[in-house]
UniProtKB/TrEMBL annotation:
The keyword Signal applies. Keywords: Signal. It comes from Flavobacterium fluviale. This is DUF4374 domain-containing protein. It comes from the Bacteria. Residues 1-26 form the signal peptide.
């Protein structure tokens, strides 16, 4: 572990001073810690979230419960958390899609499906099961549906952006031959401080005429990211293809290059599709952030659902176009095939962490440390991996100072919070997470 972590660390662009003062030795970490990579919030709460089984183990559709602990307790392996017996429910008919403020003092939630689907509210985090739900709420379902995809922007916890595409509809030419498949996209900005809708726009987002004639279309939008300049949103896409001969969804098809939609911000106007020639997977992620503005000012974006070439990390430069000279294949970096990034988080100074699975792993989940500058990756050792560990619904990581926090629990089995020192990669097993049959923990916030 020491040799591999040190090699990975020094191969990136991390500052020379850090490289000279950091190793995996616990003594070195205690005595020579560099300045924090990220801001530190003294007294920050770490909120643990668990998803309940509805009908099948691990489906997470029975609701979500949360419980908050101190950072000191989170890193203590002798401390136990049982979110299912002691936690508080958050409003959601299925798995809640949570976000948290940078300082951990507030949870943000948009109810997913059900009678209150699309309703935004906040929870003040007061420790333990004490979460004060806001009286001020706003429902965005009339614009973005009852199950909108959304994330907050990294703008000081001011704004959330929800996106949606209506069920795509087939259009035909005058001679009744197939023309295209399109849905109407909604992009909506939410003022999370004032609890109100700031703006929204709705429009079709066409592909090229050639691509549409073949049946390709945007099925879903997700994971919007604000660029460094603060004037564009980059929105991930999930692509599908209609069989022009039958009008049915093609079960398999030759994928186009990975695509994103760029819109002006804050107006949300002028949607433009950009295409990577490096990656061919979707860029929508699933239930968490999927793109990040890195220290170098560029956006790095993960891909999913490319069964041929696995997941890539793509680079979008500050002109808001894909940099096709940047090639980072997770398959190549890890030496496996068919990698799939379930969720990931940028941790600072070119380092990121991704939970993933791969072909032949039977959906078992793993954690990898990524160096975006060196385009290298390695599986994190020191984690209690298990055949029932599945990160398919994973949502939340916490980055605070030099510490990266992650919840690791196999379905129906106890697990732990793990805390990783970002500069060195040193792994510490933290608080025990007490589980129940069919349930799993889906994040820390």
């Amino acid at each position: 572990m020491k040799k591999n972590t040190f090699k990975l660390f020094t191969s990136g662009l991390l500052l020379g001073a850090l490289a000279l003062t950091t190793s995996c030795s616990s003594d070195d970490n205690n005595n020579n810690n560099p300045d924090p990579v990220n801001p530190v919030t003294d007294g920050r709460w770490i909120t643990v979230a668990g998803a309940l089984m509805q009908t099948d183990p691990g489906d997470g559709n029975g609701g979500t419960r949360v419980y908050s602990i101190s950072k000191e307790n989170a890193i203590d392996p002798n401390f136990s958390v049982n979110v299912y017996d002691n936690g508080a429910p958050v409003q959601s008919s299925r798995t809640a899609r949570l976000q948290s403020s940078v300082d951990g003092s507030t949870l943000f939630n948009i109810t997913y499906t059900g009678a209150n689907g699309g309703e935004f509210m906040t929870y003040k985090v007061n420790g333990g099961s004490n979460f004060l739900e806001s009286q001020a709420k706003v429902n965005i379902s009339q614009y973005a549906g009852t199950s909108p995809r959304w994330v907050k922007l990294f703008d000081g916890d001011k704004t959330g952006v929800a996106v949606n595409v209506t069920a795509p509809v087939i259009s035909t030419n005058e001679d009744k031959t197939y023309k295209n498949t399109r849905g109407i996209a909604t992009v909506l900005s939410l003022d999370m401080q004032q609890t109100l809708i700031s703006a929204y726009k709705q429009y079709p987002i066409p592909l090229t005429a050639e691509e549409e004639a073949q049946g390709h279309h945007i099925f879903r939008l997700d994971a919007p990211t604000l660029n460094k300049a603060g004037n564009k949103l980059i929105i991930g896409t999930w692509m599908r293809k209609t069989d022009p001969a039958t009008g049915q969804n093609a079960a398999s098809f030759t994928r186009l290059g990975s695509k994103s939609v760029v819109v002006d911000y804050p107006s949300l106007e002028n949607p433009k599709v950009i295409t990577s020639t490096v990656g061919f997977g979707d860029t929508s992620g699933y239930r968490s952030f999927n793109s990040f503005v890195a220290t170098d000012g560029n956006i790095y974006q993960a891909t999913q659902r490319d069964t041929q070439k696995g997941s890539y990390i793509l680079k979008i430069d500050q002109s808001n176009e894909y940099d096709n000279s940047y090639v980072f294949s997770l398959d190549t970096a890890l030496g496996v095939k068919g990698t799939y990034i379930d969720a990931w988080r940028y941790a600072g100074n070119g380092i990121a962490y991704a939970v993933y699975t791969y072909e032949g792993a039977n959906d078992q989940g793993y954690l990898a440390r990524l160096d975006l500058n060196a385009k290298t990756a390695q599986k994190v050792e020191g984690i209690a991996y298990d055949a029932d560990l599945n990160f398919g619904q994973y949502q939340g990581f916490v980055v605070d100072g030099n510490n990266f926090y992650i919840a690791v629990t196999p379905v129906g089995k106890d697990g732990n919070i793990y805390v990783i020192d970002i500069p060195s990669g040193k792994v510490t097993k933290g608080a025990k997470l007490v589980n129940k049959p069919g349930n799993h923990y889906i994040g820390v916030f």
